[in-house]
Amino acid sequence: MSLGIFIVAGVKKTVKYYLLLIFLSISFLASAQLVKFQKLSMGDGLSDSRVRCIGQDRYGFMWLGTSHGLNIYDGTQFRHFFSDAEDSASIPGNDITKMVFQEDSIWLGTRLGLGLMNVVSKECKRIDLGTNFDVRTLFLEKDKSILWVGTSTGLIKYDIRSGKIQEFNTHNSNISHNTVRSLYKDTSGNLWVGTFDKLNKLSLNSTVFEVVDLKQDYNPKIKNDLVLSILPDDTTNDSILWIGTQTGLVHFNRFKREMRFFRDDNSKLVNSVSKTLLKASEHKLWIGTDFGLGEMNKDFDIQLHFHDPFNASSLANNTVWDVFEDDSGTMWFATNNGVSILSRNNNRFQFYPLVFNQANNVIGYEVRDMIEDSECNLWLATQSGVVKFNSEKQLKEIFNAEQALSKKLILNETRSVLEDREGKIWIATNGGVAVWNPLTKTLSHYTADFEAGSGLRSNYITGFFELDDQTILVNSYRGLHRKVEHNGLTGFEFIRNIPNVSAFHDQFLWSFKGSKLLKTNTKSFETFEEVDFRMNDKLFLKSILFSENDIVWLGVKNGLIKYDLGSKKYEFYEIKSNKTFSLINLLADDDGSIWASSSSALLKFSPKTKLFDIYPNGKEVPISRFVEDCCLKRSNGELIFGGQDGFIKFSPADVTKSNYRAPVKFTNLYISNKSISVGEKVKGKILLKKDISFTEDLELDYASGSFLIAFSSLHFGDRNGIRYAYRLEGEDYDWNYINSNVGQASYANLHAGKYKLRVKGTNNDGVWNPEEAVMNIRIHPPLLASPFFIVIYFILLVFIILAIFYYYSRQSEMRNQLKIIRLENQHAEDIDRSRQQFFTNISHELATPLSLIIGSIEKLGKASELKQKSKKYVQIIENNVRRLLWLNNQLFDFRKLENKSLSLKISEFEVVEFSNKVFGLFVDKAEQKNIAYTFISDMDHLLVKMDFRKLETILFNLLSNAFKFTPSGGTITLTIGSDDLESGNSMFISVKDSGVGLSEEDQQRIFERFYQSDDAKKMERGSGIGLSLVKEYAKMHEGKVVVNSQLGQGSEFKVFLSLQLDYDRSEPFSTGQDNSEPLLKPQTDVKIHDTIANESTGYPTILLVEDDKEIAEFIQFSLKDNYKFSVASNGKKAFQVIAETMPDLVISDVSMPEMDGIEFTKRFKSNSKTAHIPLILLTGKSEKEVQIAGFKNGADAYILKPFEIDLLEIRIENLLKDRVRFSQHMKIDRIAKPTEKSIVSADEKLLKQIVACIENFMTDSELNVEKICKETGVSHSTLYRKVKNLTGQNVNELIRTVRVRRAAQLLATKKFSVAEVMYETGFSNHSYFSKCFRKLYKVSPKEYIDHI
């Protein structure tokens, strides 16, 4: 009917609103009666659209037999089972005809045989029926011992326990036909069999059938009467049977043989073929036919349901093969086009569409506000005018821009409606205010007059409020107005702008601002803050509802606030869901429950339980979107919520819940987004040994610690109301809520350990099932978390705890010192500044006496009366004083650089000659190290104006570094040149060597103050400021330094200096050449290797280990009359000298390159050949720790620099005398000592016996305490006590000591390798052998051999 109306409306535009009236009227009347089916098809996962039978197992899963495969459905997905000729555990055939459930099994009838399917293992056992394989129907007796099988070739009685079969056919039992389509056994023990043509009865204990003709004389053209279904009218009293046949439905009294027929010619049935029957729990008889579904009540009245191609909620197909009612009361209908499902709670929420047709297009309107007037009429403010319905819900009037003048609005956009106390209807539009007077049937309009400056300030009206004194307030986009009467004319007076006004209550206008609830006094129109619900930064108030006892309900995002106006206290009730619900409408029903809507759902809050029920938009709430501030409670208690294309109306009392407790089952396991099936291997391991639904324990490798487990609430039909809560104990602190029909718990990167996944769910109405689905999950640890590593971690943890304890114990001490440290820091800074100033003053003061000493020494050195030996001392003094003065000058300049007060002292001098002089300072060192030392200049002479002392420092530092890092046999070249001699702008100095070179990192940092490369730290001492000064001096001369180096191939430092130096020409400068002499003088070095000061063999030999050549030369020169010397520059070279000549005494410096004095002393004294030789440590380090380390490693004396040569000579003499006396004493002791008489105690004898036993079994790595006890005849406790008393060791330690001492003996012979000695002494592990040996001898076996 409505379709026809739409077509006419498309043809003639002038009648479209009249058609809208009719359409709305029809929609309002029809919507309440509409039955809505849900559909499952191949698009949802069914293996075939032709569904033949439906059932439910004891766990709640649905099973669907189709013409192509068996399906199991969990509410979210299907799993399929097909016949496989090569798999004996598969179903016998794909065309499923009947299913009968028995505990954990399903009897499957197929066109290719009978099978017994296990619902847990999903394996099927095939039952051999011989040639009767075409199974058409099944019936299981109550005691579950006999299964009746109807086939196309006869009836079979199958004994389940014994497996025996008995056949009934037309040849042996008088059955009317061999094709059996229906079976039923009544309470009297009679078996009723429906065949191809008639009804048959097999009485108890009989083997011959009685035939009953149900067709009789009806429709003679049909020769047979196929009996398709047999059903008792009452399960407790089956005297009446319902029999579905090919020619109609029969109400059959089996005792009286009375029949009542329901056919297409005498009932509402449009098709007589009654394929399937079911008596539902609501006492309705469902009749599946070849054309439509019948629903018969107790009065035999039939309501029909058909497939409507234009209605997605209609029956899926008109051919109905099976009807089934599941545990929740949901009805299932098997059709030729999938399955239709009918929920018990259907049409609780009625949808009233508001649409019309224009140019063959169906157009919907948004409902924005609604009221009920004093006559119970319903007024709707919509996107296209106002619609009025009377109390009988019939459309009465429309107000819009297309209506006649009396009902014509200026613009169609309306936003709000209000009925005042006079009965007038106020309409808020985008074109001002419209007022309908129902008495005069007139419509008045009030619009903004922008030129007058008074009245409405905007035509965009948003709402109305009527005060207690009947004053009408009009709210617009530009502010709040008051209706005023002047000379009988209605006008409006602007009050003020109050945004977001939502309600009028108790003389106040209430509005929102973020999380603040504001109220405006309607007398003074002042706005006050009532309360600020600052629960979080993102809270915004959305809706408001005033209820009894001064309680205000406020809708917010994902929750509801209850606010008490009296106590000013509030409570927040959270909507626990994974979806977002912003409550934009609030209503209270007669029972005090709060109904709310978000844009996508209806919600009910119970103040008693403090819980929310959620009814999402969808099949049961068929509206696409709810609109803000559009709700109404009618006088009869009905609630209405408006939105897109219409509104939802319902009576809260009719919204009941199903009490069905839907079981929740696990349905799938995903690892790395891949579904895991039963028996499937993941990285070589089977995770699921049985179906996930029946798996209680799940073990996963650590690599599989990221997984997803799917679960489902087994309540079918409209599943939009299902909610889940899950929690993984050991990971989650609280429950996670899901508002979806699909349940999934996903976890990633779980730690190894044991977990328990707990899941609970609701039915379709949100009623929770307290019974949880539980799965124990164990994540195995990775290799690094294995027990072995856990022990290691525990040890580390203990260590860390001890360290932390130590740390915090130290903290208490440090806290007491913090205040002192703060004060000391300030004091230290003051002292540091004073020290630096003192350092500067001292450097300045030292310059004068050092200069005087140099002058005096020069005079003394020229005196002819000095002996040659005295001149040598004078030379040493002069060289070191000059060196001290040179260092003092550098330090003085360095201090000035820090203070940025260093300046140039310009003098004019010849730079080539000056550079050659500095070059000469290193000639002797070059000869000593066999270095090819070259000076190159591309000019004969060059007169420059520079600071020659700073140039001397540049040259000396560069050459000194070159000699440090160039090995013997290398090359060093000093080059003086000019980039442009003609212009005379600049010159360069290049020092190139073939030394160790610099890495890229070192080249970046080499000019930083105090930075030293790794090679510099290893080879010679230095301060780290030399190159820094070179760079600064070059800058001061308007030049730069460039380094070019490759690791292992040498370096070149090139200094560019400006010859056009910009300096203060008012300052005088020297022009003489005498002042440009280098401060340092050339010196002859003493040869380091094997230098013999006194060739006489009668003097003691002293090995002098010293890297400072002047110190070495001074000691030799001073003591050459009494001692013979060998010299080495470091500890490593000292051992080379010792290998050639064994000294009588050793003097060693501490700080040396390659091997320092402490390491040398340790190795020297640990060698049995040299341990007796006296050793004196000579150093400038006065630290106590260094002295302790020296004496600890065996040093005989420790003398600090500077030292007196006489003191050193006396210390040498005493040590040599002590050695002589000790040698004489040892000789006398050996000669004079009488032979001691050996007195051996019983304990000593036992100890010798034990040692002998160990030696006998030396090569046996398995030697232990038990074997020694057996060999010596001593008990374990006695052996342990004796060994402990005699040696201080336990037995195992004694065995290890004897083995190691024997190993030392064998190693000392140098005839065996370390490995051979290890196996000879019973050790099987090299690292353990080395560890034991080092513990006893303080060196490794290899080092032991080297020291012998």
From TrEMBL:
Limits of the HTH araC/xylS-type domain: 1248-1347
Keyword Nucleotide-binding listed: yes
EC annotation from Swiss-Prot or TrEMBL: 2.7.13.3
Sites of 4-aspartylphosphate modification: 1149
The keyword Transcription belongs to this UniProt entry's keyword annotation: yes
Coiled-coil spans in chain: none
Record's catalysed reaction(s): ATP + protein L-histidine = ADP + protein N-phospho-L-histidine
Primary enzyme class: transferase
InterPro entries linked: CheY-like_superfamily, HATPase_C_sf, HATPase_dom, His_kinase_dom, HisK_dim/P_dom, HisK_dim/P_sf, Homeodomain-like_sf, HTH_AraC
A GO MF label: DNA-binding transcription factor activity
PROSITE patterns named among the record's database cross-references: HIS_KIN, HTH_ARAC_FAMILY_2, RESPONSE_REGULATORY
SUPFAM superfamilies documented for this protein: ATPase domain of HSP90 chaperone/DNA topoisomerase II/histidine kinase, Calcium-dependent phosphotriesterase, CheY-like, Homeodomain-like, Homodimeric domain of signal transducing histidine kinase
Origin: domain of life: Bacteria
Keyword set, alphabetical order: ATP-binding, Kinase, Membrane, Nucleotide-binding, Phosphoprotein, Transcription, Transcription regulation, Transferase, Transmembrane, Transmembrane helix, Two-component regulatory system
Residue stretches spanning the membrane: 784-808
Chain ranges of the Histidine kinase domain: 841-1061
Signal sequence bounds: none
Listed name of the protein: histidine kinase
Organism: Saccharicrinis fermentans DSM 9555 = JCM 21142
